[in-house]
Write the structure tokens for this entry.
Amino acid sequence: MMRSSKALVSLTVSGLNMVEGITLPLACAATCSASISVQRMSVEAAMTGDIDMLKLAVLHDPLVGAICTPDEVWQMVDELVVTRAQWLPQYKDAVPAAKERLAKGTVKTKDWEGAARKKVRTVEELREVVGGHH
């Protein structure tokens, strides 16, 4: 079995502790690497105020990328930096352009319910699913 070496961290009351010498299965390491890369991009964006890097970080998040188009991500990040500008001063130079893009409103939005834009089902509906477990 192929494995990838990664350091793990355990959280205790005394703080974060590195656990060394542990190998993760390759698929698990790949999932962790993707998340770690997104986090690194987010930190880089936050430290530099680079809104394009922030948009790419959000786009590369596996959960966001699974349900949002790039245009939706771009608009979502613009909405974030505009509506939360007082808490995100590093993006103050990007706010005017973000407001202009939002004023154009090129991305159609809808009110979605449920994960991945799927209809939210009741317990009764789930019980009726063929092969469903009770």
